[in-house]
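Batch manifest line 371
LIGAND: NAI
JOB: complex structure
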Amino acid sequence: MGNLSRLLKESWTLVEEQQDKVAGYFYARMFLSNPELRNLFPVTMDVQRARLLGALVTSMQLVDDPDRSDEYLHALGRDHRKFHVEPEHYEVVGGALLEALRAFAGERWSIEYDQAWREAYQAISARMIAGAATDTNPPYWNAEVLTHERRGPDVAVLTCRPLQYPLPYRAGQYVSVESPRHRPRLWRTYSIANAPDADNTLEFHVRAVGAGWVSSALVRKVRPGELLRVAAPMGSMTLDASSTRDIVCVAGGTGLAPIKALVQELTRYNRTRWVHVFFGARDRDGLYDLDELNQLAARYPWLSVVPACSDDDGFTGEQGLVSDVVGRYGPWAEHDFFVSGSAPMVRSTLRTLAELQVPSIRIRYDAFSDG
Ligand SMILES: NC(=O)C1=CN([C@@H]2O[C@H](COP(=O)(O)OP(=O)(O)OC[C@H]3O[C@@H](n4cnc5c(N)ncnc54)[C@H](O)[C@@H]3O)[C@@H](O)[C@H]2O)C=CC1
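JOB STATUS: finished
ARTIFACT:
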């Protein structure tokens, strides 16, 4: 670990347990010094509160890994154009962040820590600003909802189409989505569940969970004909067309979305790579897209699908967490992996794969937040 990243981690431990208060103070400072910034944020701040601070801290942790962070931060800068963020706003956010950290770290805060956060923030914001500046696309796309299908009490599969410009993306990537009618200024990330196609349709798989405000609106309120806003694509869980390795996809719940897009892309050119999809859900109803996956498997001989239920004794297929089920098959040492689901599901799957000696360089996944 480099010195900068050590200083950041060390100083973060001074405030980590008071994150909520740090976030509250951070926003208060920001809005006090620049009241016009308040309009960039949702009316109700509950959900937003931990977001910006959380994203800043995650970005800080990437400072040691310029290759990974460059691509990520350029994309994040492009994505932030949807908030109408201007370069000068970055300075205000940086100032408020430092004030909040200083206020809560107390006497143990040092000049060294102060400089480390300044330096890291400067590097991050420069890359985000550069990413935004080179983007010639609109800050977001207005997209009309075409179809909306409930697949169980909490899950919906919906499709939409950008109105004016096509949205360029790669299969496996994700975008932020806003419903201006039902949840103005609240954005939540979803993977696009289909590969890019000529009619520019985008498919999303959404589960309404707990405090997930945007997700509950997308499942329960949004109807065909309404407009959504969709921001710039992000994420690196994409296919390497030059690889000749066979593929294993591990999906938990609606984490199936990007896997479905990857499989669809493979149907266009794959002849030689075996593709195994493990699809885990709590119960049979949670296997909301299994019929379509089975139809694809019937049509493409290189595709196999293994469904698994973790909380359904009556299910006759595989039982258990999908992260364990994948470990019962194999051997997997020569495969490319794609993993998608909740953060705990991704962590458990990575542990299983590490035990099976799968080199981490062959595993692709994107960190995803719920909301
Ligand atoms: N909607 C989308 O476009 C995308 C969603 N995601 C994420 O996927 C998740 C899907 O959530 P739900 O559908 O509610 O799935 P869920 O929480 O019901 O889990 C489905 C299955 O995932 C596995 N799993 C869950 N927790 C696990 C753990 N701690 N260890 C090992 N395996 C575990 C189990 O096999 C379980 O049956 C969400 O966290 C969402 O953010 C990820 C990528 C895209």
